[in-house]
Every structure is written in structure tokens, then in C-alpha cells.
Amino acid sequence: MKTLMISAAFGAAILASPAMAQVMTPSEYVTTAGASDLYEITSSKVVLETTQNPALRDFAQTMVTQHTKSTADVKAAALKSRVKVAPPKLTPLQQELVTELRAEKGTARDAAYVAQQKAAHGQALAVQKAYATEGTAPALKTTAAAIVPVVEHHLMMLKAM
Amino acid sequence: MTLKLLVAAALIGTSGAAIAQSTTSTNAPPPPTPPRIATQPPVAASDMQMVLDQLPMLGTKPTETLTPVKARIQPSAADATHAVMRQKGLSTAPDPAVTTQDLPYGSDPMQFARIYKPAAATGAPMPVIVYYHGGGWVIADVNTYDAAPRLLSKQLNAIVVSVEYRHAPEFKFPAQHDDAFAAYRWVLQNAQSWGGDTSKIALAGESAGGNLAVATAIYARDNNLTKPVHILSVYPIANSSMDLPSRKDSANAKPLNTAMLKWFGNYYTSSMADMQDPRLNLVGANLRGLPTTTIVNAQIDPLRSDGETLAAAMKSAGDKVEQRTFPGVTHEMFGMGAVVRGAYDANQYAIGRLKATFGIRN
For residue B334, what is the enclosing H or E element? Predict the structure, then answer.
């Protein structure tokens, strides 16, 4: 019996080893994606308060709309996967970034916003791609895969800014 | 029974390690952390320490314990610098004296470059600097490393081309070197259309990018391309020995420690043999006939000995090379000139060396 249990444990270890991935847990993914969306929405609203640049205004509005949608999509998928969803919360870094944005005025705020967006979208893409490839909760994995091209499109828009 | 267990454990152990190095997954587990070394690094200057103190407050976790994707979303030294700037009432917005444009040089979305140009450019041809960012070829991007290329463009009235490249583990060594070389060829072909003068082209980079700057100069020499007139290599990865003095005295330094060097290597190499490739182990490369070179190092940095040994190897090869180690500062300091005195001094030193090469007087 003891031998059997030990073999079973090793069997599981061997079966798990081809992937060997330490993919984010469904809960980590939901928290990370939610924080990233909340940061996008919050920072975009900060720039919308002051920007005089119509193209930037359009972009920021698109960010609010599409990141609100991805939060809802992740939440729906989380329910399907029976993962608890706490209300999204900014990380300490994201809080700092928003504070930095608020400290800027006029075109400096516009420029700081674009610089922040370029960095944040690269990171968001890394998270979505990683979960879309190896995530363990099927509904969340499918949602991540659907978010990847959206973030890629945002990055393409940012390259022109 | 015991034997079987041992064999099974050994098998799992080996296959785990092999898989970790060969996988292209950004979820691949970190390599086992090396045994802790007790050595405490030299004390940082108080302005440097102020930046380092931001990292835990921003939520930075030890990179060597993370998967690549988690490491990529960690707060960076640049984030810490911005936090200090903000606290001091300085603007964190990009300096408007320099404009940027992102242009592709290849078909992968990561194969693009950010062209920095002085806003007040007059139309007279400007020197060109091809700059490669750091991050151990696994983390960080052109956004993380905005400070140095922007400063160089402004202070030298130069076109600076900051090259993004495909990252590991998705693309392993030598993908980053191949991209660096391709970008250099692309700049030679296109710099004139941006207002650049390719008879005054220099290579620059920080950390992994400091390696790429030197490796690209070697590539230019070996492929009969226009030679750069100067190499500015800031705390480069240049020596694959793990026994260097800085590997020990700065083993527990921040924001880069010795365990992280192993972590990066685990993801950017396909096998241990890669580490001996002269493109990575630059001290073992043919270094003859390279342009005038400036190597900048930080005292509190496990890569300090890389720069020092590279300078010695280049001198032996007959190159004109000058190397300086700046005291009281750490890895990543080159982007902290706005708030760290030692970093400002390093910036001014590098700018002075490039001015001399470009024939800029003042």
C-alpha cells in the first residue's frame, strides 16, 4: 500500500513534468488581469480630464471601453471556472504610476500617459499570452486567448504614437 | 525500494533541469536558487540607497524566484527612479526636447526600434548612436530603458536608435544577437533618411545591451560593414566565469544579484555550451581592431568584473579602451542621473567620451 502510494506520487510527478510550467494559478491570473485593466481604466480617465489632443482622447476612450469589457469577460469566465473574483485592486506600482500621472500637467501628462501605456501594454500582453498558452482553467484560458489580439492591437496603435 | 526511489528522484531531478533550460515557455519554473553567500555588498551612496529602497515598497519580488512572465511584470529600477523623481517634485514625463518614432526593422512585432531625435534638429547631419537595452535578454524593453537614449540624443544632438529585440525564453540565444546585427545593418541603410551621418555612428548599450554593443562591433568588423567610431558599453555581460571577484562581493547586491545571472542564463541559453560562445563570453572573443571603447561600471554590481576583465582583454588585443568604475552606485544606475550623483557623473563621463569621438566641442 505504502509502495503503491509512493509510486502514484512519483507517477503524478512524472506526468506533470513534461509541462513543468509554473503557470499562474487561475486566481493569480484573475487578480493580475483585473489590476492591469483597472490601471488602464484609471490612468486613461486621468488623461481624459486634461488632454487637448483629439487622437489621444480617442485612444484613452477606447482603452476605457475595451479594458472594461476585458474585466467583464474575465469575471464571467472566472464564474464558469468557479474561481472567486475579488474587486480589482491596483498594485503598489500601478498606484505610483497613477500618482505620477496626476502630478503632470498639460502635454507633459499626455506624454507621460503614452510612455506608461507602452510599458503597461507590453506587460499585459506577456500575462495574457502566458495564460492563453498554459492556463489551467479552460474558460479563463479561452478568455485570455481572446484578449491577446486586443492587447496586440493596442500596442500597434501605441507604436504610431 | 530505496534504490528505485533514488533512481526515480534522480530522473525527475535531471529531466526537470533539462526541460527548464530548453523550454520556450514564459511559465517555465526558475532554476534552483544557488546556495546563499553571506557576503554583504559595499554600502550604497545615500541617494542610490533611496532609489533601492523604493523597490520593496513598489512590490518588487526577488527575480530569481519567479517565472519569466512574473519577472516581466515586476517594478523595475526605472520605476523606482521615477518614484524618487516624483517624490522630489521632478517630472517623470519624457523630456520633450527629444521626439521619438517607433519603426520596424523585421517582421516579428518585437523587431522594431525607437528613433530618438532632438526636437530642435536643424537639418544638419547628426551623429548616430545605436543603443541596446538591458534586462538579461529576458525582461525589460525599450520603455524600461528610456532614460539613457533620451539623454544621449539631447546632450549629443544625435539620432539614437534604441533597438527592441526578441526576448528569451521564447527566442533563445543567439536570436538577440541576430536581431542586434540586423538592426545595425538597417540603421546603416536608413540613418541618412532620419538626418543621421553614418560616418559618425557609435554603438551603445547597458547590461545585456552592453554585451550586444561590443558583439555588434565585432560583427561589423567581420562582415566588412561600416565600422562604428565608438563603443559605449555600460556594465556589460562579458565574462562567463562564475568565479569573478564581483560575483562574490556583490552576490547580494540590488537590483542585480549573482543568483539572477544564473536565472537569466537558464532562460536565454539552450545548453551550458552556449555560455562559452564568444558572443556571450566576450573576453574569449577575437577583440582585435575594434573602435575606441568606453566601459562604464558600477561598484556594487555582480557584473563589475565583466567590464574590468573585458577592458583588460581589449587592451591586450591592442584596442583603445578606457574603463571606469563608479563608487557607491549599483547596476542600472546609468538611467538614474536625475536623482543619483554617481549616475550623473557616469552619464557625464560617457557623454564627454562620445563628444570627443564625434568632434563636438564645448
Answer: none
CATH code for residues B85-358: 3.40.50.1820
Domains in chain A, number:
1
List chain A pLDDT tens, one digit each, 161 residues. 444 444 444 444 444 444 468 999 999 999 999 999 999 999 999 999 999 999 999 999 999 999 999 999 999 999 999 999 999 999 999 999 999 999 999 999 999 999 999 999 999 999 999 999 999 999 999 999 999 999 999 999 999 99
Which residues of B fall within a CB distance of 8 Å from A118? 143
| Domain housing A110 | 26-83+91-159
Residue A75 belongs to domain with CATH number: 1.20.1260.10
Parse chain B into domains and list their residue ranges: 85-358
B82 is catalytic: no
Whether residue A130 lies inside any domain: the answer is: yes
Residue B207 annotated to the active site: yes
Identify the residue among B26, B79, B103 best suited for mutation to test binding to A, counting A beta carbons within 10 A and taking the highest: B26
Burial class for B78, CB neighbours closer than 10 Å (0-12, 13-18, 19+) = buried
Optimal mutation site among B5, B33, B91, B110, interface A, most CBs of chain A within 10 A: B91
Pairing of strands B292-300, B196-206: unpaired
Residues constituting chain A: 161
Task: Assess whether the previous peptide bond of B291 is cis (omega < 30° from 0).
Answer: no
- Distance in angstroms (rounded) separating the CA atoms of residues B124 and B121: 7
Q: Does the complex come out with an ipTM higher than 0.95?
A: no
Backbone Cα Rg of chain A: 19
Confidence band for B171, pLDDT divided at 50, 70 and 90: very high
Asked if the Cβ–Cβ distance from B19 to A107 is below 8 Å, we say no
The reply to whether B301 belongs to the active site is yes
Q: pLDDT tens digits, residue range B328-339?
A: 999 999 999 999
